[in-house]
Write a structure and sequence with these properties.
Blueprint: H1 6-44, H2 47-55, H3 60-81, H4 90-115, H5 120-141, H6 149-170, H7 177-200, H8 209-231, H9 235-240, H10 245-273, H11 275-278, H12 281-297, H13 303-320
Helix pairs in contact: 1-10, 1-12, 2-10, 3-4, 3-8, 3-10, 4-7, 4-8, 5-6, 5-7, 5-12, 6-13, 8-10, 12-13
């Protein structure tokens, strides 16, 4: 058999050369997703305090409803200015409304009322520990993901770390009935958000993630605001009254990086990574919150808390390395 011509040998090597840009694009996408995940963890690691400040003087339904409604309107306006279609396929409207009610209306009002009766630390324990478990459970239940040992082990390690970090302080003493009900509110709100997150993922096969985020914010926030005005004592007075600078600045912070930034990132990552991997933000955000407390307020942590934070970061690393 005659030797292969040199010209053909070069041609045969061409596919590997042509594939290099694809590999570079994949690596760039992964780096961008990790940067987005870091931003999500940072923003949502600082929101508990802002929510606590706001609802101290403003009705929870009004405080949350106005924020999410404005966020939805802003996102839709931006999309319209960029020439994107704003219509929703009829077959998806019911699922979208369900997601909005679960992720915004129920989640926010139940959690914020619960936060009125328990400490931010206990709320962080409950929400951070339950979020990744609930997201994974709903994702498996809806057939979007399969349980893998590394994922389950990582979540277990993270939950242990959460209770080492927050447990002794948050759970010390006897809980009153109000505190028990407040804790139950945070649990129910977290479960609603997790279920809505998983239900929302199929929507993003047809609709852009930013549009799903915008409509979820608008529908959920609007329903929450209307319900607040109809049934929440002092809601009308809260809309027209003076909130004070602390509450307004907390609302603005929750609106801009919280609802307009982190929420869109969350939907993008749920679409690309799945709910359970994205849910590991709940292991990283509390560590960021504690680190900010150390830096800005000189707060103290003991050896057990340091070990707890280390376990939470290890857990996030384990779950993030799990392939769907």
């Amino acid at each position: 058999m005659p030797p292969t011509p040199k010209r053909l040998r070069v041609s045969a090597a061409a596919p590997s050369i042509a594939a290099r840009p694809d590999a570079g694009a994949t690596q760039a996408l992964r780096l961008r997703q990790r940067a987005m995940f870091g931003a999500l963890c940072f923003v949502w690691g600082t929101t508990w305090l802002a929510m606590k400040v706001g609802i101290a003087t403003v009705s929870p339904g009004v405080f949350a409803g106005t924020r999410w409604t404005v966020a939805g309107l802003v996102l839709l306006t931006v999309r319209a200015l960029h020439g994107h279609a704003l219509d929703i396929p009829f077959r998806l409207r019911g699922r979208l409304i369900l997601c909005a009610v679960l992720m915004v209306s129920l989640n926010q009002v139940i959690q914020l009322y619960g936060l009125r009766y328990i400490t931010a630390g206990l709320a962080a324990v409950l929400s951070s520990a339950l979020t990744p478990i609930a997201l994974l459970g709903f994702a498996i239940g809806f057939g979007q993901e399969r349980l893998r040992w590394q994922q389950a082990a990582g979540i277990g390690v993270g939950v242990i770390g959460i209770f080492m970090l927050f447990g002794p302080k948050a759970l010390s003493g006897n809980l009153s009935l109000g505190e028990v009900l407040g804790a139950l509110g945070v649990i129910i709100g977290t479960l609603a958000y997790a279920a809505g997150s998983v239900i929302a993922r199929p929507l993003m096969r047809t609709m852009p993630a930013a549009h799903v985020a915008a409509m979820t914010n608008l529908i959920g926030g609007g329903a929450l605001l209307i319900g607040s005005l109809l049934f929440e004592p002092g809601a009308l007075r809260a809309i027209t009254g003076d909130w004070g600078w602390p509450a307004f600045l907390a609302w603005l912070y929750l609106l801009l990086p919280g609802s307009l930034g982190a929420t869109v990132i969350y939907f993008l990552l749920v679409r690309d990574w799945g709910a359970s991997r994205t849910g590991t933000y709940a292991f990283v955000s509390p560590v960021i919150a504690v680190a900010i407390g150390l830096w800005l307020f000189g707060e103290h942590v003991d050896a057990g808390e340091v070990v707890g934070m280390a376990l939470m970061l290890v857990a996030a690393f384990m779950v993030l390395r799990t392939r769907g």
